TrEMBL record:
<protein>
    <recommendedName>
        <fullName>EF-hand domain-containing protein</fullName>
    </recommendedName>
</protein>
<feature type="domain" description="EF-hand">
    <location>
        <begin position="186"/>
        <end position="221"/>
    </location>
</feature>
<feature type="domain" description="EF-hand">
    <location>
        <begin position="362"/>
        <end position="397"/>
    </location>
</feature>
<dbReference type="InterPro" id="IPR011992">
    <property type="entry name" value="EF-hand-dom_pair"/>
</dbReference>
<dbReference type="InterPro" id="IPR051581">
    <property type="entry name" value="Ca-bind"/>
</dbReference>
<keyword id="KW-0479">Metal-binding</keyword>
<keyword id="KW-0677">Repeat</keyword>
<keyword id="KW-0106">Calcium</keyword>
<dbReference type="InterPro" id="IPR002048">
    <property type="entry name" value="EF_hand_dom"/>
</dbReference>
<dbReference type="GO" id="GO:0005509">
    <property type="term" value="F:calcium ion binding"/>
</dbReference>
């Protein structure tokens, strides 16, 4: 059975829900206004705030933005943590704040803009400050209401009063019943906006934890400032309005300053709007799922970045081994190949290659997979160019590699006669490390394929819709996530360095 709370507490809870919804709708207006500006670039805005170039936005940097645009603030740390649930914002968190939630197409187009560090226009700078100022002002107003409500009941009791089915979740029907019970109406767009704010998982349901987070004051000690003012609204001391008033127009045509509380509307015969629960159910669920898909896509990009960095790390370690091998005075790539080429015909088949690996005492390698990796043209033979490319570091010129004199290839040499024990050890390490890299990368790719939409990632890599992307496109994509490493080795794994990659080749990298 649902828990019963007083009429005053119910009215106050309705006011809090209405205020959260209003905040989201006002913030969405600013987000759309911001993203529709042709010169707006999310990364440029992020770097404008990231003045210390730490790839993080901290409270004091937001304070500076607000002050420069005549929005004055004090003691922002606690408020910043509560508003954004973080001590600082990375680029992903910043995108989630400034990108629209109701316009999926505009959100995706804005997120796909090429990163730039251009100086922001004054209008963009002011609109960005407007968005942060709105968030903080509304957070202060909510704190007043939550402090008053906390003097009546705790969040668990209020949650139980709304949970009519006792299933520990609240959906839009529960909120509609609660408002109607208090003679109020929460319109469809208001309910959707409220869910965008509170339902962090985009499931269309509010859990008890979501509800607690919604009603938790910034500091519990502030819930009872003193016994005389327990039910009075505390004075606002943290944020003041800008010098130039910022007016918002809601859907009813009434203008309200940012931060002003709008009273809930009573139902009447003249202005009652027919409530269609079935239509609302499908509309709200579809809107929430659309936003969740877009946010998941941004997370998919980050997982692709993580996969790329893992591949890059493994390839760089392999490069170090190749470099050490080439630095051995007794090693020559021509000798190395001729030791494989038993019949001195300029090419090595799979049986000869397997025999070569046996002489190196490499028992745990997948011979077929390694042979197919080296056989670039897939004609069943490995040639000197294939072997030379495999054992040579990408940053070492072929002139240096070939300048070492090769021994007479027509004479018969054993492996120990050609190379020292140290050199043989590096050769063994090279093949073993390649094998271990392939096992790890294959596992990572499998995990990635279980979760990702490759075509969406490919479209991000192909910003000009050519049907292909090149190394520069891949580098720009990684720089968007503040990865400054040279991705040459990663691109080499995807395809040839001097060749553009199409979708089929991109897909084969994950499948093979």
């Amino acid at each position: 059975m649902a828990y019963s709370i007083s009429k005053d507490a119910q009215q106050l809870l309705c006011e809090i829900i209405n205020q959260i919804s209003l905040t989201e709708r006002r913030a969405e207006q600013i987000r759309i206004q911001l993203c529709r500006k042709t010169s707006f670039n999310p990364y440029a805005c992020f770097k404008r705030l990231d003045s210390m170039n730490t790839n993080q936005i901290k409270p004091e940097q937001v304070v500076q933005l607000l002050k420069e645009n005549d929005f004055f603030v004090q003691e922002l740390n606690t408020l910043f943590n509560k508003t954004f649930l973080k001590e600082f914002l990375n680029y992903q968190g910043f995108l989630n704040i400034i990108l629209p939630k109701t316009d999926g197409e505009l959100r995706e187009i804005t997120a796909m803009k090429q990163p730039t560090k251009a100086v922001l226009e004054k209008s963009i700078d002011y609109t960005l400050a407007q968005l942060f100022n709105l968030e903080y002002n509304e957070a202060i107003n909510l704190e007043r209401l939550k402090t008053r409500l906390g003097n009546y009941y705790n969040p668990d009791q209020m949650f139980q009063s709304m949970d009519s089915l006792n299933n520990n979740i609240l959906n839009f029907k529960d909120f509609d019943r609660f408002f109607r019970r208090n003679g109020l109406l929460l319109y469809e767009e208001e309910l959707i906006a409220f869910f965008y704010r509170v339902d962090k998982q985009r499931t269309g349901q509010i859990t008890l934890n979501d509800f607690r987070r919604m009603l938790e004051p910034l500091q519990k000690a502030e819930q009872q400032p003193n016994s005389n003012n327990a039910l009075q609204t505390p004075k606002q001391t943290v944020i003041s309005q800008p010098k130039s008033s910022n007016i918002f127009i809601d859907e009813l045509g009434s203008s309200n300053k940012a931060g002003q509380i709008v009273q809930s509307r009573n139902l009447s015969a003249s202005n009652k709007k027919k409530f269609q629960s079935n239509r609302r159910a499908s509309s709200i669920t579809e809107s929430l799922q659309t936003t969740k898909l877009t946010e998941n896509f941004l997370n998919d990009e980050q997982r692709f970045i993580d996969l790329g960095l893992e591949v890059l790390k493994l390839e760089m370690y392999l490069e170090e081994i190749k470099l050490k091998l080439q630095q051995q005075k007794d090693f020559n790539s021509m000798d190395f190949f001729h030791f494989m080429d038993l019949k001195n015909k300029g090419k090595v088949n799979q049986h000869e290659f397997a025999y070569f690996l046996e002489l190196l005492q490499l028992q745990n390698l997948d011979v077929i997979e390694l042979f197919n990796f080296l056989d670039k043209d897939q004609d069943g033979f490995i040639r000197y160019s294939d072997v030379s490319e495999f054992i040579s570091p990408s940053n070492m010129s072929s002139t240096y590699i070939c300048k070492k004199p090769a021994k007479n290839s027509l004479l018969s040499y054993s492996l120990s006669q050609l190379f020292s024990k140290t050199t043989i050890g590096f050769i063994q390490l090279l093949f073993n490390q390649w094998n271990e890299n392939e096992i790890v990368i294959r596992l990572k790719k499998k995990q990635f394929l279980n979760e990702q939409n490759l075509f969406q990632i490919f479209n991000k890599l192909d910003p000009f819709k050519k049907g292909t992307f090149n190394r520069q496109d891949l580098q720009r994509f990684f720089e968007l996530y503040n990865v400054k490493d040279d991705i040459k080795l990663l691109y080499k794994r995807l395809g040839k360095l001097n060749k553009e990659i199409n979708y089929k080749e991109f897909e084969l990298f994950f499948i093979n």
